[in-house]
C-alpha cells in the first residue's frame, strides 16, 4: 500500500504547488500625491486602475495626501466633492496631508469617515494621560493572493503651523494634538516592525513629509529606519524617482509624482518578488479609456459650480503675477503686483492702518481680462475671514523678522504689506527664536530688517515707532489663528463690525477700484516698491 500512496502524495503536492503559482500574480499599486483638487487627475488614475485590472485582479489606488483642498471644487464644498470623486475611482488607502486639516479637525474627521479608503497615519494623536491616542490606524495590511503589503501613513509634523494652529488647541490655547515632531521616525519604525511581525511581505510608506524639509524629511525617514521597501512621498511637490540606502544600507525607493497630477505612479510587485516603479505622463493615457463613472461625476459637480464660478465680477488691465517669466514661483520671497493687490484689499476693507498678506495664502494668479468669481476663489481657496489686531511697533518689527527669516529661500510666511514698507540686509543671519513646536517665540540680537516705515498720510512715510500702537488688518489665519509660524501671536484682537469672508474682501476692494484693476496702479514690473533688499 505504501508504494502506491507515494505517487498519490507526490501528485497532491505538485497540484498544490501549481495552484499556488497560479494564485501569485502581479500586484499593481497606483499612487499619487498633492492632487489639490485637480480633478482631471482622478479620471487618469481611474483609467490606469481599470486597465491594470484587465491584467491582474490585484490592484490598489493610494494617495500620500493633500486632496481635500487646493481649488474651488474643494473650498466651496469644504472637501465633500473631492470625497465623492475619490470614492468613485475608488481609492484603497490614503494618508493625511497638512491641507486635509484646512476645514478644521471635526470636518477632516467627517470627510475621512466618508472615504471608502482606509485612512492611515502613525504620528497623529491626541494628548492623553498615556502616550497619546492615535486618531487613525498607523498602518493597514492588504492581501493580494499570497502577498501581503502594509501601508504605513505619515503626516508632516509641520501641519501644526502650516495649517491653522488654533485647530490643534483647546479653548485655553493649549496644544492638544501631536504630530510627534521629535520622535516621528520612532512612530514609523514601531508601525513598520508591527506590520512585519504580522506577516507583511512588503512595507510601503505613504509619506507626507517632503524631501526638502529636514530634519523630518523623506530622505531622513529612509536613513533613520529599516524595513521599508518604498516611500511614496508628498508635500514638496517634487517629481522623485530614485533609490537610497536605509539605516542598514539596504536600497529603498523614494518616489513622488509632483502635484496636481503632473505625473502618476505605478508600482508593480512582479511574480518573482521584484519591485518595478515608473512615473506616468497623463498625456500618454488613452482618452478612449477614460472611465465614464468618474467623468460623469465630475461633469455633474462642475455643472453645479458653473454658474457660480463663471460669474463676472470685474476686469483687470494687467496680469497679477505669482511667478516670473520663467514660470518660477516668486510670491513667497519677492514682491509682486498680486501680493500688493491682496495686501491693499486687506487694508482698504479691513480698516487697519496696515494691511498684510502672506505669500503662502496666495494660490493663483489673475489674468488680464474679465475676472470671474472662480478666479478669486482660486486665489483665496482656504475659507479664511477678515481680521484686525493692534500691536506695538516693536511687536511689528519682531513679527516681520519672521517674514524674512529664510530669505532668499522661499517661505509661505513671507509677507507683503500695504501702508508698510521695509528693507532687509540678507547678509545678516536671522536670529528669530523658535519654540519646540517651531513657532515664533522672539528675536535675538541681530536683525535683518534695517529699515521699516509706515505710511502716516498719503505718500508720507515715517519710521516705525517701537512704542507706538498700530492697527493691522489681514486674514484670521495669520492674525488670530497662529498661522505664518505664529508671527502675530503677541498682537491683540480688535472687534470687527461684521464677519467678512476672504473672497468677499477682494470683491469689495474691486468695487472700490471701480471694478477694474488698473495697470498704472499695479504694474507687472514693480522694482522693490514695498520690499527692498540691500
Give an overview of the whole structure.
With 534 residues, the chain is of the alpha/beta class. It has two domains: 25-303, Metallo-dependent phosphatases (Purple Acid Phosphatase, chain A, domain 2), CATH 3.60.21.10; 311-533, 5'-Nucleotidase, C-terminal domain (5'-nucleotidase,  domain 2). It contains 15 helices and 29 strands. The strands form seven sheets. Strands 4-3-2-1-14-15 form a six-stranded mixed sheet, with helices on one face. Strands 7-8-10-11-13-12 form a six-stranded mixed sheet, with helices on one face. The longest helix has 22 residues, at 2-23. The chain is globular. Residues 9-22 have low confidence and may be disordered.
Keywords:
2 domains; Purple Acid Phosphatase, chain A, domain 2; 29 strands; six-stranded mixed β-sheet; alpha/beta; 15 helices; 534 residues; 5'-nucleotidase,  domain 2
Largest sheet: 6 strands, mixed
Number of helices: 15
Number of strands: 29
Low-confidence runs = 9-22
Report the CATH architecture of the largest domain: 4-Layer Sandwich
Average of pLDDT: 93
What is the structural class?
A: alpha/beta
* Range of strand content: 25-35%
Estimate the helix proportion, in percent: 25-40%
Rg over C-alpha atoms, rounded to the nearest angstrom: 26 Å
Q: Tell me the CATH superfamily of the largest domain.
A: Metallo-dependent phosphatases
Q: N- to C-terminal separation? A: 98 Å
Identify the quaternary structure here. Answer: single chain
What fold name stands as the CATH topology of the largest domain?
A: Purple Acid Phosphatase, chain A, domain 2
Main sheet: strand order: 4-3-2-1-14-15
Amino acid at each position: 500500500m505504501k508504494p502506491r500512496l507515494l505517487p498519490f502524495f507526490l501528485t497532491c503536492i505538485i497540484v498544490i504547488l501549481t495552484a499556488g503559482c497560479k494564485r501569485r500574480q502581479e500586484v499593481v499599486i497606483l499612487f499619487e500625491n498633492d492632487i489639490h483638487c485637480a480633478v482631471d487627475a482622478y479620471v487618469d488614475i481611474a483609467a490606469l486602475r481599470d486597465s491594470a485590472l484587465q491584467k491582474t485582479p490585484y490592484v490598489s489606488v493610494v494617495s500620500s495626501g493633500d486632496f481635500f483642498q487646493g481649488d474651488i471644487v474643494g473650498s466651496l464644498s469644504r472637501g465633500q466633492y473631492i470625497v465623492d470623486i475619490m470614492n468613485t475611482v475608488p481609492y484603497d488607502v490614503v494618508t493625511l496631508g497638512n491641507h486635509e486639516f484646512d476645514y478644521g479637525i471635526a470636518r477632516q474627521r467627517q470627510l475621512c469617515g466618508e472615504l471608502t479608503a482606509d485612512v492611515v497615519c502613525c504620528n497623529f494623536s491626541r494628548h492623553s494621560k498615556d502616550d497619546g491616542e492615535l486618531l487613525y490606524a498607523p498602518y493597514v495590511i492588504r492581501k493580494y493572493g499570497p502577498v501581503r503589503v502594509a501601508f504605513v501613513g505619515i503626516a508632516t509634523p509641520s501641519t501644526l503651523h502650516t495649517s491653522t494652529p488654533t485647530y490643534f488647541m483647546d479653548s485655553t490655547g493649549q496644544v492638544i494634538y501631536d504630530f510627534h515632531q521629535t520622535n516621528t521616525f520612532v512612530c514609523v519604525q514601531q508601525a513598520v516592525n508591527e506590520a512585519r511581525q504580522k506577516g507583511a511581505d512588503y512595507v510601503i510608506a505613504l509619506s507626507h513629509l517632503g524631501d526638502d524639509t529636514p530634519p523630518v524629511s523623506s530622505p531622513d525617514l529612509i536613513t533613520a529606519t529599516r524595513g521599508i521597501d518604498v516611500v511614496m512621498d508628498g508635500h514638496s511637490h517634487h517629481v522623485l524617482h530614485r533609490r537610497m540606502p536605509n539605516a542598514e544600507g539596504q536600497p529603498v525607493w523614494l518616489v513622488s509624482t509632483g502635484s496636481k497630477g503632473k505625473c502618476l505612479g505605478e508600482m508593480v510587485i512582479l511574480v518573482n518578488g521584484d519591485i518595478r516603479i515608473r512615473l506616468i505622463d497623463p498625456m500618454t493615457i488613452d482618452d478612449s479609456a477614460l472611465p465614464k463613472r468618474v467623468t460623469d461625476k465630475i461633469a455633474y459637480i462642475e455643472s453645479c459650480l458653473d454658474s457660480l464660478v463663471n460669474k463676472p465680477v470685474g476686469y483687470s488691465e494687467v496680469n497679477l503675477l505669482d511667478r516670473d517669466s520663467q514660470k518660477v514661483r516668486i510670491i513667497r520671497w519677492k514682491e509682486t503686483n498680486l501680493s500688493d493687490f491682496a495686501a491693499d484689499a486687506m487694508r482698504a476693507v479691513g480698516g487697519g492702518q496696515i494691511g498684510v498678506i502672506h505669500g503662502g495664502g496666495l494660490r493663483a494668479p489673475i489674468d488680464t481680462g474679465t475676472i470671474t468669481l472662480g478666479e478669486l476663489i482660486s486665489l483665496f481657496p482656504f475659507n479664511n475671514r477678515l481680521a484686525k489686531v493692534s500691536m506695538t511697533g516693536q511687536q511689528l518689527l519682531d513679527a516681520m523678522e519672521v517674514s524674512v527669516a529664510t530669505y532668499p529661500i522661499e517661505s509661505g510666511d513671507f509677507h507683503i504689506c500695504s501702508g508698510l514698507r521695509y528693507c532687509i540686509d540678507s547678509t545678516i543671519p536671522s536670529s528669530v527664536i523658535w519654540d519646540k513646536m517651531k513657532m515664533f517665540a522672539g528675536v535675538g540680537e541681530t536683525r535683518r530688517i534695517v529699515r521699516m516705515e509706515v505710511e502716516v498720510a498719503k505718500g508720507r512715510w515715517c519710521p516705525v515707532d517701537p512704542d507706538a500702537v498700530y492697527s493691522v488688518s489681514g486674514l484670521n489665519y495669520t492674525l488670530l489663528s497662529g498661522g505664518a509660524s505664529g508671527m502675530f501671536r503677541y498682537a491683540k484682537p480688535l472687534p470687527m463690525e461684521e464677519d467678512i469672508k476672504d473672497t468677499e474682501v477682494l470683491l469689495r476692494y474691486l468695487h472700490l477700484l471701480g471694478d477694474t484693476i488698473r495697470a498704472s496702479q499695479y504694474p507687472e514690473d514693480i522694482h522693490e516698491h514695498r520690499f527692498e533688499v540691500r
